[in-house]
Amino acid sequence: MTVVRAFACVLLTLAAIPAAADDARLRAADPNELAYTYGVGTFAPDYTPPPPGSYALPPIDTVTDHALLDAEGRSTTLFALTQDRVAVVAFVYTTCAETTGCLLSLGVQHRLDRVIGADPNLARRVALVTISFDPERDTPARMAVMRTFHAPQSEWRFATTRDDAQLQPLLADFDQPVAKLRFEDGAWTGLFRHVLKVFLLDGQHRVRNVYSVGFFDPTLVLNDVRTLLLEAAGERAGG
Amino acid sequence: MTRNAFVGRVGMAAVLALLLGAARGRADETCMSPYMPKITGQEDYVYVWTLGVEGVGDGSDKLVTIGANPTDTAHYGKVISSVSVGGRHEAHHAGFGDDRGHLWAGGLDDSLIWVFDVAADPAHPKVVRTIDSFVKDSDGVVGPHTFFALPGRMLVTGLSNDKDHGGRTGLVEYNNDGKYIQTLWLPDKAEYGYDVRVQPRLNRMLTSSFTGWNNYMTPLPKVMANPEAMKHIGSTMVVWDFHARKPIQTLQVPGAPLEIRWALQPRHNYALTAAALTSKIWLIEQKDDGTFAATAVADIANPKDIPFPVDVSLSADDRFLFVDTFMDGSCRVYDVSDPHHPKLVHTQKIGSQVNMVSETWDGKRVYFTSSLLANWDKTGKDNEQFLKAYGWDGKRLTPLFAVDFLKEGLGRPHIMHFGQERFYKNQIYSGETARLAAAR
User: Fold this and answer.
1) Among residues A156, A171, B17, B187, which is most buried (max CB within 10 A)?
2) Mean pLDDT over each residue of chain B, to the nearest integer
3) Which residues of B, range 411-430, sit inside 8 Å of A by Cβ?
4) How many Å apart are CA A219 and CA A51, to the nearest integer?
C-alpha cells in the first residue's frame, strides 16, 4: 500500500468512526484489521464486461415484500420502492468504516444513479434502493441526509426500518449476514461485520445476481440491468 | 452528532473511498475464495474433513476439529470434537460459504454434500443440511469436489458423470440455502474437471482436470498399470469468462493439473498449478492480448520417479509455493518471486505420504494431512494418517505438533480449513499485524 493510500485509509477510518463508538479504542486498532473483507480489495476491473444479452442470469432466489420506513419516516414496503422494476438493492449503514464495504457500495450506486438518470429508458425501468441495517442510528432523518448528499438523479430511494424486529426478517430473506463487531470485552465497537452484498432484482422480485467486493463494478451492473431488460422485452415479444 | 457534522463525515468518507479506489485487500489461508471475510492472526481450530476407515473408530466420514492455538494448552494439538456423517462416501474437499459460517463438504463416491454450521459453536460444528440430490439436480454431474464461495451462492466442481462414470463433468451452482441454480458442463475436448478458482479483477475463472469415478475409486496401482485407464486422465485447463460463465480458451497442461492458485498481489495476472503425473509446475499467465498461455516452468523432484505432486499452497505475498509430493511424503518450497523461474529453497520430509497443505494467512504456520483417496493411499506401514503442523520462518519448516488420525480412531484426514473464536464472536482484532502488512 502506498503512503498516500495508507494515509487515506487512516483518515477514512477516523472520518467514518461513529460518534457512539469508543473512538479511542477503535483508533488504537490497526485499520487493516477493520478491513475484514479480503481478496482483491476495492476492485479496479481489468476487463471488458460481456455485452448485455450475451449471457444469462439464472434466478438465484426470490424475495418477499418487507415493511420499511422511507426517508420521510413514512411506512412503506420494499416492493413499493422497487415498483416491480429491475432494482439494485444495497444494504448499508451510514457510519461504516469499511473501505470495501458500504462506502464502495454507495459510491457505485452513486455512479449507477448518474448513468441511469441520464438515460430516460433506464430511468423509467430501473430503481435503486439503499436500505440501512442500523435502524438504531440510521433514522429516516439520517437517510434523508444521505439522500441530500447524493442528490439522486434517478429513482434512487433511501430507507431504513423501524427496529431490529422489522429488520431481521428482511436481512434473512436476502441472506445478508450482519453482526455487531465487538471488542474482546463484549462492548460494541459501533461497527458491523457485514459481507458487502448488493442484489439485482428483476420485476418478479427474483434475485438475478449478487455483487460483492470482487465484481461490484458499475459497468458490469449496468450490463446486467440491460440484460434483464432485454430478457423482459423478449418475453413480452414472445407473448 | 449534528446534521452538518454528519454530512461532513459522510462526505469525507466518500471522498476518501474514491481515493482508495484501487487499493487491494489481502488473502487469508491463501487459497480461499475472495468472496468471504478473512480470518487474521492465530487460528484456534483446524477443521479436517476425514474419510472413514473400516475398523477405525466408527468407520464413518467425519469433520474433525483440532485445537491449534498454543495459548490454549488444554486443546493444542488435540482432537476437540468430531462429528460423524454416517457411512463412507469418499470424503474429500470442503469449502466455506460466503459468510464463512457454513462449511460445505462433499463425498466423491455417492455425491452427497453436507453443510456444517461452524459459527454457532466453532469448537463443535454441526450438520445443518444434507444435499442428496446433487446428481439429479445437475443432470448427471458426479463427484462434488471444490466448493468455492460466490456471493449468495456456492460453486461446486464435479469430477465425473452418471452416464459412464468417466471424466466428462461440469460445475454446479447452488444458492446458500442449497437450492440448485445451474450446471455448466466443461467444453468438448476439455471435458475433465477438478478445481475452480476465480480472479474477479480479470473476470476470469480457471478450471483444471483430473479423472473420473472409474479411476479415482480404483486402487492406484491398478490404474497406473492399466494403459486404458491412463488414457482417461485430464490434460487441460479451461479459461472462462467468469461473469458470463462461458469457456473461452482451452490450455494444454498434460498430466492432471490439479489445484489452482491465482497470484494474490496487484498486477500479478497469473496462476500456478502442478501437474500430478508429469510432476511439473505450470504457470498460467495472461498475455498482453488478454489471452492466457500455459508454460511448464519447473520440474518437481525427478518426474521419472513419479513423485506425484498433489496439493500446492501459494503464500499471500506470492513469494513461496509449497508443493506436496504424495509418493515421497515431502513438501518442497519454491521461491516463485519470478514465476517463470521457480527456485527450490527447502525440502522437508513430512511422512510416508502427504497430500494436502494449508498455509495460514500470516504465513507463519503450515499444516499437512496425509490422505489422497481411500483407494490411492499407501498400504501397510506406509499408510500413515496424520495432521501435522509446522512453523515457517521463510527458510525452513519446523515441527509444531502432530495428530495420529488412526490412533485417535478417526480415519484418513484430507482437506483443512481454519476457524477462530474471535471471528465467530464478531470480535475486533487486537492489533496483530501480519508479515504482509509489515512488508507494506
Assistant:
1) B17
2) 91
3) 422, 425-430
4) 10
Mutate: best of B42, B197, B426, B435, partner A, most A CBs <10 A: B426
Only one residue has cell 440448485, namely B180
Please, are residues A149 and A109 in contact by the beta-carbon 8 Å criterion? no
Q: CA-CA distance, B369 to B357, in Å (whole number)?
A: 7
Report yes or no for ipTM above 0.85: yes
What is d(CA B36, CA A37) in angstroms, rounded to the nearest whole number?
A: 6
Between A71 and A39, the more confident residue is A71
B16 → closest Cβ in A15, A35, A54: A15
What mean pLDDT do residues B342-360 have? 97
Q: b or e along B138-176 (b: 16 or more beta carbons within 10 Å of the residue's beta carbon)?
A: bebbbbbbbbbbbbbbbbbbbbbbeeebbbbbbbbbbbb
Look at residue B155 in the predicted model and tell me its pLDDT: 98
- Contact (CB, 8 A) for B377 and B353: yes
- Chain B, residues 17-56, CB within 8 A of chain A, namely 17-28, 33-38, 40
pLDDT tens string B64-104? 999 999 999 999 999 999 999 999 999 999 999 998 999 99
- State the smallest CA–CA distance between residue B243 and chain A in angstroms: 7
Q: Using an 8 Å CB-CB cutoff, list chain B residues near A54.
A: 244
User: pLDDT band at residue B434, thresholds of 50, 70 and 90?
Assistant: very low
B216 grid coordinates: 479415482
| Contact predicate B440/A1, CB 8 Å | yes
